Amino acid sequence: MIELYQVSKTVQSGAERLTILRELDLKIPDGQFVAVVGPSGSGKSTLLGLVAGLDAPTKGRIHIDGEEITRMGEDALARLRGRKLGFVFQSFHLIPSMTALENVLAPLEIAGRRDARERARRLLEDVELTERAHHYPSQLSGGEQQRVAVARAFANEPSILLADEPTGNLDSRNGRHVFDLMVGLNRRHGTTLVLVTHDAELAARADRRISLRDGQVVADETSDENVREASEELEEAARP
Questions:
Q1: Fewer CB within a 10 Å sphere, N or C end of the chain?
Q2: Which among 187, 197, 199, 196 is positioned nearest to 233, based on CA atoms?
Q3: CB neighbours of 224 closer than 8 A, spacing ≥ 6?
Q4: Where are the domains of the chain?
Q5: Would strands 59-64 and 2-13 be described as parallel, antiparallel, or unpaired?
Q6: pLDDT exceeds 80 at position 164
Q7: pLDDT category, 237, cuts 50, 70, 90?
Q8: Of the ranges 9-18, 79-88, 97-106, 228-237, which one carries the lowest mean pLDDT score?
Q9: pLDDT digits (tens, 9 = 90+) for 59-85
């Protein structure tokens, strides 16, 4: 579970203090697919960065599965991210000197997984890139690069996937494909998915939509139909 208690974020902008998030209280249960929406500058990406432990709130507390990350040092945060969090960003952040397979393999080898190569190949198969495993990022289309990024994000079987405008640099066809892959992996593995998006159609498919404006939650809507469908998919995936 992700829990935020009275979380605020203020930064210095010239001579002024700019408040990006204002005393947020949020709880996101395990396995939920949440879309975070709102206009530019509303605090969406800042919220994701705080949950990831990539930035620290000015005030308030953040808990990931009961662990208060706002009290952790950088080494402890790095270990927690390696164990529990996966990331997909608008920019693909692939290592250009590594093939698709090697990009997915890297976090698995760092974690010391004995089945690293086999799992990396399986993940590329999940995102339909088996035939492109030995191609470098420069040889892949934007959609293919983002699919490699999705595979890499799931490499260490995170319990939470954070996605910041992952389809923003893609055309509608590739964007929908990447989105469907993320949601499919989310449903099959029971991964909590927090998606920042400007795309209303994608947000409508989430279990829950949190709308931010001026750093505050102005709407928090749950779709009973989506929650029911997600529960059925999770139950189906759990059957032998």
A1: C
A2: 187
A3: none
A4: 2-238
A5: antiparallel
A6: yes
A7: very low
A8: 228-237
A9: 999 999 999 999 899 999 888 888 888
Q: Cite the beta strand spans of 45-152 per DSSP E.
A: 59-64, 67-68, 85-89
Residue bearing the bigger pLDDT, 166 or 141: 141
Q: Is 190 left (phi over 0), alpha (psi -120 to 50) or beta?
A: left
CA dist 174 and 162 (Å) reads 19
Collapsed DSSP state (helix, strand, coil) of residue 136: coil
CATH class of the domain defined by 2-238: alpha beta
Q: Indicate the SS3 state at residue 199.
A: coil
From CA 204, how far away is CA 154, in angstroms rounded? 23
Tokens 């920042």 locate to 196
The confidence score (pLDDT) of residue 171 equals 81
Q: In residues, how long is the chain?
A: 240
- pLDDT tens column, 6-62: 999 998 888 888 899 999 999 999 999 999 999 888 999 999 999 998 899 999 999
Q: Which two tokens stand for residue 236?
A: 């189906």
Phi and psi at 158, nearest 5°, equal -65, 150
